[in-house]
Amino acid sequence: MFIVLLFSTIQALSTGLDGGKELCLGVQGKRTALFQISFVVSGFQEDNIEMKFYSPRKTLLKSSLKQKEGNYKEIMTDDGQYEVCFKSLDKYYKLISFNFDFIEENDLALAETMDQMAEEMKQAYRSLKTIQNNQHYQNDRENEHQRMLESTEKKLWWCSAGKMGALIIICISQIYMLTGYFKGKSFGPNV
């Protein structure tokens, strides 16, 4: 049984496969487009399946044997019809669900640009996080310096006030002592 499918966007299908039979799907592809196929097989002895992917020149590109599911990517090298074939390796009926996805070359460039932009965004985020951490550090350091400055100013004020008080007390006591010392003495001419 051969089915031709023409896809322009993501397409997901399910189909049955009788035991011992082969199902081939034709997919029209363009050169440099990325083709991705994902498939899942369900049913009795679901791993008894063979999948093959052929180029338009009938060259085998990918194959898998006894895998109940798979995900393959291939960049198309030729324009034309690619084939994906599923073959049951036993006599039991199986249900195959598959998904074809095409990404054109300009979409690939967009994806690469998006990956590059995502990497640059991560780097910018890390840089901004570093700047933010530095700002928090600077802010904390500035607050600590402000607290230390206020504490030092208070201590200096009390120290200055204490020194001024001590000087005033010393001056007053010196004046008192000197006036007491010279109190009974006369400083005029003695005749």
Q: What string gives the helices and strands in order?
A: EEEEEEEEEH
Strands side by side in the biggest sheet: 1-3-8-5-6
Number of strands: 9
Mean pLDDT: 79
Radius of gyration: 46 Å
**Alpha-carbon distance between the two ends:** 155 Å
What does this entry look like structurally?
It comes from Paramecium sonneborni. This is GOLD domain-containing protein. Keywords: Membrane, Signal, Transmembrane, Transmembrane helix. It is a single-pass type I membrane protein. Belongs to the EMP24/GP25L family. The chain has 191 residues and is α+β, with helices and mostly antiparallel strands. The chain is 40% helix and 35% strand. It has 1 helix and 9 strands. The strands form 2 sheets. Strands 1-3-8-5-6 form a 5-stranded mixed beta sheet, with no helix packed on it. A 4-stranded antiparallel beta sheet has the order 2-9-4-7. Strand 5 and strand 6 form a beta hairpin. Residues 1-10 have low confidence and may be disordered.
